[in-house]
What does this fold into?
Amino acid sequence: MVRGSGRRRRRGHRPFALLAPVLCLVLGAGLAAALPDGAGPDRAGHGGAGHGGPGASGRPSPGPATAEPGAEAGVAADPPPVGSQASSGSVGVDCGRGEEGHYNEDNVVVSPGLPAGAHHTHAYAGNLSTDAASTDASLAAAATSCRGGDRSTYYWPVLRRTDRPGTRPHERAAGHGNTGRILPEAAVTVEYRGSPVSRVVPMPRFLRAVTGDAVAGTARDGGGVRARWGCSGTPDRSTTRYPRCSEGERITRTLVFPSCWNGLDTDSPDHRAHLGFPAENGVCPADSFPVPQLRIGLEYEVEPGTPVAVDSFPEQRHDPRTDHAMFVNVMTDEQMAAVVDCLNRGVRCRL
It folds into this structure.
């Protein structure tokens, strides 16, 4: 697999180009994607031991999506469908909360092949090998923190408390004004949701995605801002500023990814053109297809009044509007098919 800038490799990486007409027929008929026998919710609950049930190789074995503990298959997920063709299910992926201490200053989506290309520190969940040198093949072969065997990589800039010095090597590595003690995530939620107006189709394997605008602090407008900061006690409220939370509440960050795929590419020169956001009513542009919408939720235990700052480029001065995240889908086709099945049938599942 070619590394380098990634631009030439991925512009030509169009493994699904011939599927676009098929996807149109699938959506027009309102049908879900084809699934292997037995995929989908399991009334037995969240089986399996350890993080994904390691096999002989020591790596987690992939498994189908299973019913969320305490929720039987067939129970409609919240929110209720907006239209009769809505894919109102949800799929949670348990990838831990960064206990492995996977940090680096790389960005394999935006700056593949360039060590320390992010100029700030990222925290990771899922794939345990992700760095600037990662390839599709290396990601597919790596170990993962996800209990169900999802080898996708999920990452975001760290949050620091600036009144305490960073003492560990990865806390001092970023430079560029990113200083202070890194706050560990108290909780990490990885969830896939469907569309409020239609069925969804599978994401292609190795799809790259970006949400948020890392240069929002100096941008001419706020069109790319996707930052959602909040407090755990008021989950229905969010802001683009650092929140002031009460005693006992956690600071929250919610990162919602685009979910309208062009049906052809796994990446694009700006890492965004191939995957866009739906309109406010949930409808994707006419030349795109709805895929599962990824949402990452982060929580931090911070005493009220503690100064915090998200890592950023130097000129962005830790502006909270610059919050962003990246993702590479490394699910197997079977795993993704199970996710789509749960979403399209309107049930809550776990992978």
Notes: Residues 333-345 form the longest helix (13 residues).
